[in-house]
Amino acid sequence: MIELKEKIADSIVYFLKDNGIDFKRQDILVQFKKPEKLDFGDIAFPVFRFAKDFRKPPVEIAGMVKDFFESNPLDEIEKIEVINGYVNFHISPEWMFNQLVSNLNSKGDNFYKQDVLKDKTFVVEFSSPNIAKPFSIGHLRSTVIGNFLRNLLKALGANVIGINHIGDWGTQFGKLIVAFRLWGNEEELEKDPVKYMLNLYVRFHKEAEENPELEDKAREAFLRLEKGEEEERNLWEKFRSLSLKEFEKTYKRLNVHFDKVLGEAFYSDKIDRVIKILEEKKLLEESENALVVKLDDYNMPPCLIKKSDGATLYATRDIAAAIYRKETFNFDKMLYVVGSEQKLHFRQFIKVLELAGFEWAKNMEHIDFGLYRFKDGKMSTRKGKVVLLEEVLDEAVKRIRDIMEEKNPDLTKEERENVAEVLGTGAIIFNDLKNDRIKDVQFSWDEVLNFEGESGPYIAYSYVRCNGILRNAESVKESENYKATHDSEISLIKKLFEFKEIMLIAYNNRKSHFIANYLLDLTKSFTTFYHNCRVIGESDDISSFRKMLVKLTMSTLKAGAEILGMRLPDRM
Ligand code: ARG
């Protein structure tokens, strides 16, 4: 589509030049619009701004453009219409179909890959749960949004480094160490580590209210940990590895991969350098017993760098991490996928990097997102405030299993288990990614699992249906010849053709809902087509053509699901 738009823009540049007007391709490209209605064609070009140059009303100018294209026709354009001051181009569905087919034939499963980001390096930091704490819904959001971005950037040809910035450092580990020494037990810890650690942590806070000395002890323990004292270090390492093992299970279920797992602790020996740099730039000031960088001029509270007892802080580790990543990966862009509640934190430390003279700090983006709101309230009450991801996934899988038992009793038990796992996790992923990430997610089980609604299972169901149609049409010869006889075939082709452009829109906005909504639209388009058009039992050329449409739909659904990070079942 991009290439075609460029071609049309070049023709327009040529036309304008003929009339003594100088314009660049890029300036034309940005003016192209999508017509309001499908009947109005595929690309609309408004000519109002040329009224002065031509000293003619826009309709007339649009007519001239149309005439120009009619004397210098492009194969890809089927028809040109003038509507008021717009030139509307109708792209030939046959040309689109041929493009789609040749792309699929030559590239197979990679048919949707593009190279617009070739030679660009992106660091995507995502997930980043905290050790010794359960994986929360907030971390789910970061995980699925980040995984989506990693997949999308890769599909656009970028070199991507996905980093899990584990929260494995900070004063809370002093607390945990103290609590474990006082009340902990190795055997209990091994049984259900994260839960056990959480309980220790909760107990610490409760007892510290009565006995403030505990807080001092915890601070001391963390300082010893920062100094690398063996006993503290060993305990910490145990907490860390047990937690990571549990997170690993979740990542496996969600089909998420990282290129690097580098926790906050990794930067503990890189902090001194940060402090030196900030000192040299005369940015550090003492304030309330801490070293800070004042940000009054930017309407922000000071960024805390070091506490009076020498303990390092979250922001300092972020500054060190950014410098390390720039030096190691030389990224063109770095994306941080972290909830909106940390907006200020990101603005602060990015500003500090800028003030310290790191030009590249402007290439760092906070990809923020909203919260989950549980409509039916069922998930939030039982275990207090924190909703655990594992529980949500298990619940989704269980509910799907129940539905399947009813709807599809002929699957074997094992098949059903597998399908339920794939559909259940996919339902949660899709439900998250179909929202504009900035907004809160209104979570309702009915919506998440609705097989006919805007859901992951609905996408999976359509995919499985395509698969079934292809299986039944095994005897139909495959053909690459265009043979549309029904409007719904043309609409489907146009939808299919949009996919690569939607990927670019999703990239430009760094938002997944463009892809998710596209898949829902494609599914609807496909349903209309299938409702109107039989694949089997028509003349050979029609059947073959329709079989190809099913194949294209199936590949596109799969590609879209892959980018979203959703697995699809072959049968269900
Ligand atoms: N572990 C942090 C939390 O759960 C998120 C880390 C975000 N990333 C960052 N570079 N600060 O709140």
- Uncertain regions spanning at least 5 consecutive residues: 380-384
Q: Under the CATH scheme, which architecture of the largest domain would be assigned?
A: 3-Layer(aba) Sandwich
What gap, in angstroms, lies between the N and C termini?
Answer: 35 Å
Largest sheet at a glance? 5 strands, parallel
Please give the CATH class of the largest domain.
Alpha Beta
Number of E-type strands? 13
Categorize the overall geometry: flat
Number of domains: 3
What name does the CATH topology of the largest domain carry?
Rossmann fold
Our estimate of the beta-strand percent is: 5-15%
SS summary, helix count: 22
Subcellular location: Cytoplasm
InterPro entries: Arg-tRNA-ligase, Arg-tRNA-synth_N, Arg-tRNA-synth_N_sf, ArgRS_core, DALR_anticod-bd, Rossmann-like_a/b/a_fold, tRNAsynth_Ia_anticodon-bd
Catalytic activity: tRNA(Arg) + L-arginine + ATP = L-arginyl-tRNA(Arg) + AMP + diphosphate
Keywords: Aminoacyl-tRNA synthetase, ATP-binding, Cytoplasm, Ligase, Nucleotide-binding, Protein biosynthesis
Task: Provide a descriptive summary of the structure in words.
One of its GO terms (biological process) is arginyl-tRNA aminoacylation. Its EC number is 6.1.1.19. It catalyses: tRNA(Arg) + L-arginine + ATP = L-arginyl-tRNA(Arg) + AMP + diphosphate. This is Arginine--tRNA ligase. Belongs to the class-I aminoacyl-tRNA synthetase family. With 572 residues, this protein is an alpha/beta fold. The protein folds into three domains: 90 residues, 2-Layer Sandwich (Gyrase A, domain 2), CATH 3.30.1360; 253 residues, Rossmann fold; 139 residues, Isoleucyl-tRNA Synthetase, Domain 1 (Orthogonal Bundle). It is 57% helix and 10% strand. The protein has a five-stranded parallel β-sheet. A three-stranded antiparallel β-sheet has the order 1-3-2. Strands 7-8-9 form a three-stranded antiparallel β-sheet. A hairpin with a 2-residue loop joins strand 7 and strand 8. The protein starts with a helix and ends in an 8-residue tail after the last helix. About 1% of the residues have low confidence. Arginine (ARG) binds next to loops.
